[in-house]
Design a protein that fits this description.
heterodimer, A: two-stranded antiparallel ribbon, 32 helices, about 45% helix, disordered N terminus, B: about 475 residues, alpha/beta, Alkaline Phosphatase, subunit A, three-stranded antiparallel β-sheet, 12 helices
Amino acid sequence: MRLEKTHCVLRLFMTVLCALGCSDQTLLGQDPADPKAIAFFESKIRPLLEKHCLECHQGKDSKADLDLSHPKGWQAAGVIKPGDPKNSLLFTVVTSQDPDVRMPPPPKDPLSKAQQSSILEWISQGAYDPRSQVPESTESIGPKKRNRIFEITDEDRAYWAFQPLNLPTWDSPLGELSPSKKIDLLVGDLNLQTASPRERLRRLYLDLWGLPPTYEQVQAFEQDPAIERWNEIVEELLGSLHYGERWGRYWLDWVRFAETNGYERDGLKPHAWKYRDYVIDAFAKDKPYDQFIIEQLAGDQWAESQGYGPSNEPELWRQAVIATGFYRLHVWDDEPDDTLAAEFDDADDVMVTIGSAFLGLTIGCARCHDHKFDPISQHDYYSLLSFMRGIDPYGLSKKGGGGRGTGKIQRYLVSDQESASWEADRQTKIAQKQKELESSSDPAARLAIEGDIKTLRDSVPPFEAALSVWEIGPEPKATFVLNRGDPNSPKEQVHPKTPEILPELPVGESKSHRLKLAQWIASEKNPMTARVLVNRIWQRHFGIGIVPSIDDFGTTGQKPSNLKLLDFLANELIASGWSIKHVHRIILSSDSYSKSSRPAVSSEASLYGQPQLRRLDAESIRDSILKISGRLSNQRSGPSIYPSLTQEVKDAANPVSVSMWHESPKDQQDCRSVYLIVKRSLKVPFLETLDFANSTSPTPVRTVTTTAPQALLLLNDPWMHEQAEHLSKRVFDRVGMDRSRQIEALWQAVYQRMPTDREMRSVLEYVGSNQDRFVSLCRALLNSSEFIYMD
Amino acid sequence: MRAEDHRLDRRRFCTSSGAGFGSLALLSMLRDQRLQGATHPTKAKSVIFLFMFGGPSQVDLFDYKPELQKRDGQTTQNEFRRGTKTQAVLQASRRTFAQHGESGLWCSDAFPNISKHMDKLALVKSLTSDSFAHGSALLQINCGRIIQGHPSLGSWITYGLGSENQNLPGYVVMLDPRGGPTSGAPNWSSGYMPAAYQGTLMRPGSQPILNLKPPSNIDSPAQRSEIDLLNELNRNYAHKRADYSELDARIASYELAFQLQMAAPEAMDLSQETAETIEMYGINEPKPQWHPLALGPSTFGRQCLIARRLVERGVRFIQIYSGGGNAGGQNTWDGHHGIEENLSLHCPEVDRPIAALLTDLQQRGLLESTLIVWGGEFGRMPVSETFNTGGKPGGRDHNPKGFTYWLAGAGVKGGTSYGQTDELGEAAVENPRHLRDLHATILQLMGLDHRRLTYFHGGLDEKLTGVLDASAIHEIMA
């Protein structure tokens, strides 16, 4: 009410002033070439207007029809009389003591005395305003913009994603049906054909492992395609580390995993690969998803709360500490222009990732202002951020010159006593050597002692280390709402609190803020968490999510095509003790999953319910080629592998990146792609060309492109030629020199089927008696859509 | 209409796109979105961005400062990193400045050839940006933000305008043979946009694109037969899956790849150029012997001429790097270790080629449809940097507080100088403009409105110029 009144007053004032015809162009400004006037405007007035006025007075729906973003705006409104501040409404309102008149209006703080006198000086000197451009209004598109004053409305509260799970009710006897059958009922009859056993088995293998089955496995299933057999195969595949390698990689996309910092030096994040192995292991062992969340967000604090440590459940403790490497995956500029701004940029990167990966919310949009579309206020953003303000930032405890040192981003996986004792021992030795140095006068001896001291100082403790969080101390840093996201303009202080629109959940007695946050996200009462994950699982199995915008469940995203199905799956996840494999099982055993990808359903609203024809992702293409050529190595964990780079790639890369590329032994290079280094300035070219994750911001779904460079890669890359050679040798070794049998064996290896008569005829003619032509045929098959796509 | 709204519409676009470099399918899908950006009528078709990596020194090239020349050797306070000041010694330029052409724009003798074209150039001498460090400064000029992960200028322009030649990449980057720039590929990345919009590296010679040709044991007819066989397999597969148009796009991509094996070397083939043209660009100049790092005009000249040939073939955005490898050495424009040595190395490498490019484009009537942009990631300080030159005067440190860019060609008001730095050339004081205003200007000259050219990502309609207000520099537009 108060605001409305203010604006009524303002309107009245303006009408009067405009009637006086105050916006006289001849009065405007000083000589525009006067650098002092420009400097004054740029240093004092522009920032002030931007910070305190433009939030409401900008663009075509400006409050009170006053647009202060360009001179024509304030001229038209007549609020400034250049040269005459006393008769300028702008000056009157910014200096008013009356809360109903004063601008900026309460609860915002009034302008400081210094700012008021800047306005006075500016208007007195003629109100020079060099902002020449009238901003053109952009037509609003998409979802409805929220009001400027943040308020949670009934409409917000009724929004689907913020509702508790709403479980479908089943009339007897439907309630007795298996979850898979219930999925089918919820999807409904889309009038689809069932896929052939071969297509189904290929889909299942590529889906769960990212690798095709063998021809023999397809044959066996064709002979016995019963559901019992199918379920056995599902179990077998879910029980393999290959499943963890495939699905762990999805998680790595969602949290923008990479092993280097980006920017000029693109330094290596120490032990980032342990986080990768942790993720693979978590999927392979079906770590309950709530626990997976808790470990990544607060593994250290969780372990402490359980009494776990180096001497009690050391492996559980170790895993939990490694999981907190989650906080260290962001890009990090080792030479930031503004250290404080960089600290908040890094924190925002983590906030955006938590929002996207766990909650399906675009939280980052509320960093500089209230979210323009979703009911998330700026206050919510900083309250959420304050849960994490105890973390020692990546780059603030500087060692080394040039601002390039990292903070405490590693942790030794031994007890504090053990590590302290090692450190004390080192210090004692250094002190001893210092004494020796003082008492020695022989130059040669001194040199040797100095060398010893340096060695001691540089020595690395002989303990296993992990990339992890550290707390700065018992108390986190104070957190303030930052005006327009500017760390130098703190407003009110905030304390750990979850967003107002979401249920405030009872969270234990824990004093540890991050653990509270983690438990809140991992709670079954949180309406986002389970829905977001099951939607992702569905999307990977079918190609399109039930909510197609899988990282955005807010109003800028898309609505669920089938909310009942989404909620049913979310409940299955929670009721199974957050078992991801349970969700796989019930989906994979449904009839819906066994349907053919063609012909496509006619209704777009039903697309989510039909398995889509999909191109394999970069890793599956590379790994499948290796499996078929017989080269796939058994490397299953450990430090990342650096494949050989061609000279062309090295020439085009920055020398810093090339110098850090320590090519791995050839026999290790044919590992599964998830074990290849993810270096932000130099991605593995094969993967990058085939639409690898951008690895800098969360990649919910990789966009698949079809480009000429991909064709060139698969046709001409030397690695592809090697694989085609290996494949042809493998075929020869297997079936000898009979051409027809070779072609059959090749079809079996690549497509897991026999060639048709027509294919056989045409290929026999192509190959003839030419061995090179057979290698060429192998390459063509590895390029072919039937191999690169999954039905 | 946003990309996201199409996610369900498989028949127009599923999660896949394109066939060639510019991705026809994707472009038609995004048409409505792009059209919002294309609002200004323009003749401009292509951009050639001449990038002086390391940061060229404005006070030695275009930003003549008589006061600095007078005060050589005097001590002053210098902010050499944000908020950090030190006592430093003013260092006058060792170059001789003169006014040129009808416009009387200043240019030093470091660019004896470019200075003949001053009436074609519009200089902006008052640019500012947000970082003193190479990595983030490069990202900001290339991608609009000091934070990694955003699409580059070339990506925005090819996203907004598409490409006119589907047989060549729409966005080409040519590097200095001394190495790629700081931070590498993120400088020409498509960020959160599809990979089809990222820059493609092209190098002079018969293998201009990575993996362009098969290993030497496979000749062109053999590869043709292999692709014919592959096409047959792929057509059979696609035939039964008519709902999925990306399978047809995939067949087309192999045809394009094959054609590219001819088209790319053809675009690079300078044997079709006259001896006069080759001479004009300085391509046959021998490598100078006075300095191990010196290249002479030959390399950059070749790249400039290739750029003209690419423009003729409808390539949308071409960026050429002068200077390469690690920043901090004389292999780039990063003249910490002696500005005179640095200028003597790099100015002759680009001067003749750039002048030739301007002449050549004009003679062929291409200058009015080609926008030339010249500059680096920041400028340099008017003071001497002594800590890197062993106490001897000579170097200059980074300076994002006031530096010079120039534009020429399509829609640019030639012979213009806009904005000023202070009397010593250190910070912009008259008409200071942020880099985002330069980005807005480049987009506008290309017929795109920076406020309306958006890409929906992470809940936001992202823009090259970001969320802070930006405006094009109209004063340098014709």
